[in-house]
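tokens incoming
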């Protein structure tokens, strides 16, 4: 029997984002946030247990349909390209590529250039 997984915390999110170029820590709406050149791509929601993560609408729609226990939006965010992530319902492996997607939404081209994914042959 495997041990129970510890819920993710913002410290874990911060560690995952540290691999991305130009990430800075700051605050947004009074909560800890991750930014690139002052542009926020992830922040702690006011409840302290949820991450507000910038993603394209298509990604958000997919996440909401595929894993509603982990991803949701409130009416406030319907018109914004973000998804709310229950940190206790996702793994680091699932969150890492989503953080990179959020980072891509705000990172300048010069920073993104080194992390471009090559198209399949």
């Amino acid at each position: 029997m495997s041990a129970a997984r510890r819920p993710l915390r913002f410290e874990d999110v911060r560690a995952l984002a540290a691999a991305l170029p130009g990430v800075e820590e700051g605050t947004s709406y009074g909560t800890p946030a991750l930014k690139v050149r002052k542009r926020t791509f992830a922040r702690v929601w006011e409840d302290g247990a949820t991450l507000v993560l910038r993603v394209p609408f298509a990604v958000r729609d997919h996440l909401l349909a595929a894993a509603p226990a982990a991803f949701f939006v409130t009416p406030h965010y319907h018109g914004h390209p973000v998804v709310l992530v229950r940190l206790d319902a996702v793994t680091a492996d699932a969150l890492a590529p989503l953080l990179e997607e959020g980072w891509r939404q705000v990172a300048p081209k010069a920073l993104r250039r080194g992390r471009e994914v090559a198209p399949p042959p």
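note: The first strand starts at residue 23 and ends at 28.
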